[in-house]
UniProtKB/TrEMBL annotation, chain A:
Keywords: Cyclin
Segments for region (Disordered): 37-81, 264-301, 372-427
Biased composition (Low complexity): 45-62
Biased composition (Polar residues): 63-78, 266-275
One BP term from GO: regulation of transcription by RNA polymerase II
Pfam families: Cyclin_C_2 (PF16899)
GO molecular function, one term: cyclin-dependent protein serine/threonine kinase regulator activity
Gene3D superfamilies, per the entry: Cyclin-like
Organism expressing this protein natively: Neurospora tetraspora
Composition bias, Basic and acidic residues: 372-386
Entry's family note: Belongs to the cyclin family. Cyclin C subfamily.
Domain named Cyclin-like: residues: 98-178
Protein name (database record): Cyclin-like protein
From TrEMBL, chain B:
Lineage, top ranks: Eukaryota, Fungi, Dikarya, Ascomycota, Pezizomycotina
Naturally occurring in which organism (per UniProt): Neurospora tetraspora
Protein known as: RNA polymerase II transcription factor B subunit 3
BP-aspect Gene Ontology terms: nucleotide-excision repair; regulation of transcription by RNA polymerase II
GO cellular component: transcription factor TFIIH holo complex
Domain (RING-type) ranges: 15-57
Alphabetically ordered keywords of this record: Kinase, Metal-binding, Nucleus, Transferase, Zinc, Zinc-finger
PANTHER family: CDK-ACTIVATING KINASE ASSEMBLY FACTOR MAT1
Record localization: Nucleus
Gene Ontology MF, one: cyclin-dependent protein serine/threonine kinase activator activity
Keyword Flavoprotein in annotation: no
Amino acid sequence: MASEDARYRATSQFEAWSFSPAQLAAMREKTNAIARQRIAERMLSSASNPPTSNNTSHANTPDPSGTGTPNPNENSAPTLPDFLKPEEEALLVSFYVSELLRAADHLGVPDEVRATATVFFRRFFLTNSIMTYPPQEMILVALFVGSKAEGRFPRIIEFQQKFNTKQDILAGEFLLCQGNRFNFEVRHPFRALMGAMMELRSYGDIDEQRIIAAEKRAHEILLFSPLMTDAYFHYTPSQIMFAALSLADRGLAERLIQETFHFVPPTTNNDNTPAVTPLPGTENSGISRKEGGGKGTMTNDERAAIIGPGIRDKVMGTIEACRNMLSNELPERKSHWTSESIFKSQIRPVRKKLTKCRDPERWNLSELQRQRREAGLRRADSEERPAASNGAKDAGIFGGDLAAGAPEKKRRKVDGSGLEDPFGGPL
Amino acid sequence: MARPLDPLGFEDEMCPVCKSRKYLNPDIVFVFNPECYHSMCLNCANRLFNDGPNQCPHAGCNKTLRRKGFRSAFFGDLAVEREVDIRRRVAAVFNQVEEDFETLQDYNNYLQMVEDLTFELVNGTDERRRQAEAQLQAWEAEHRQDIERNKKAGREADEMSRKRLAAERDAARQRRIEAIKEAEEEKRERVRSREMELDNLAKGITTTTEPATKVQLKRRGQVNRVAEAAPNPAASAMATGASEVERLSIRGLKEKPKAPAPQGPYDPFGGMDFAPSRYKLHGGLTHPLIEKYRLDRQHVAGGYSFDDFAARALYEAFAGLGVFVEDEKEAGSASGIGLSQETTMAAGIAAVDDADRMDLD
């Protein structure tokens, strides 16, 4: 196994956030089903006993939800709204990602922040339904947390000035981190593209203008296409980079692949002998056997498994698949997502549907946070146990979202379902 | 080397063979053979066993004895003599020391075992004695090397302590000689200075008395200094002797508690290999975007390494190129990495949701 691949396999991006298409679809189905069930329960419970504290949440909620919820309130046998289907959710997520990219442009953040925020957003809405938490606010939360994750620490004032909201961003911060299972490192293909360009330049026989043009175009693609698609879930950054490069200049991408997987195993009768072949001088300097620690010796089989023709074809197939995925969302499609007609014909109906079926308790982030804090304080006051007050203090410190209310209860619950991780279970 | 066995009631001592007594023959010497611990007088032993091995003359004892095995007793009671012999033999075989054991508990268990065995040998019935004897011999045969090594270590330790004692004695003697010499020297000096004083007085020069005493004082100071310096070599010799003893005992310590096999140096990366296998790093890898920083003092002065950037960029370009998410995650779902994780995650969400709901209720 190539050492670079082994290192990539150790990242949280591969461990926790890489899925096959079938798995991704299954997860979205599941998220959707769970959200339907929860929201239906909440709607019914808020309909059956309206004058409880639950009601305050949508009393203070901005109006759109009001159009959906009064219906169950009035009828004694409340009718449930028409929930979004998983495909519709995916469409909305894509739409909001395009909104996120617009917001990022508006904010003028670097490429990494933009991409990280998008990935955070996508990951969050992979395990949480767009019906449960408000995507419009989560966009800004993702941008805020993404900036922090990339080592830039914007002041919330900047966001307030540009987007005219502050409380919701702060309220959603911890929620987003939880939804991302605190996996803050996202691997991006941008630096990889620079690396590929360095390698291409070192060949020495490629026209400089061609390289510059290819890099420009590939960079443009990387800033849009992988973010608008599920590429980050299905492919590794280097595969995405090669796919983008291939879209920009297929010849260069293929050249780079051919040069990398250059190893030709000797004739078949030689293959069976596990002889350690002395490598051709130019090739072996950078290659080292895993255990040998730089001895520079490797059997033909091992070398073929890393840089042989078999793996080359497989890599090319994967890059081709990624290329197809990216080609669905080329940067030219930017206008597609912003065009008024498309919005009217495709997005608006789904958004209307969404306003009817959103979660009555979770829709307002700051209200949700306030309630949870209060619940935590109430518990602390009523029980007056040092542990409980500690919990409330912690909740205050950590911004008190999901875990803020009842640390004891939650822990018990989590233990009951066989999960010992306070972050809400492994991914 | 005969010792008075029974200084008060030696009329009790009687050779069971020739019936002669100490009373009748004050020079009589009693000997016994450790084969059976039956005593007889030296004359009888000589007479009976001069012509080679013979049976023990005691009634009912059919051990075959040799002349060579006879010796005189150290203790009056031959039972004690026998027990001491046995203990000596057992101690020669079971000669581990406390440092050989990992815990005190182990050592105490070992001592207990040895004592039990010894007791069997000394006081046990025939059957048990035979058994203990067999155990002892088996142990001796199995652990011959250990025993030899311990014996050697013990001998060396004895040797060392003997040497150290000798060195101390030598040093003490040396010190005494030095002291005597010094006293003599001082006496001579005093006599000489007094003579000088008298000479000076006789010559009528009175002013020289002060320098003379000064000289004497100075000499005394020198002598003292010499006296201080003198025992030093002996002391240092003693110190080295002590340190050698110390070192030996430390070696004995280190040898025995079986240290776990060396695991090699600690690897914080858990054996992960950082040598690239798909690409090679060479000079001249560069990019127009970083080119301009090569001359930028803010970057260069801080030690920014452009090679490191190139290494990282190349690593990112090729890392995970051979990772096929679809294949690996589908394969992983069987072993509980993929879909099953997703279900636990869903359960986690459900759990969190439930908890929240309970809070709000």
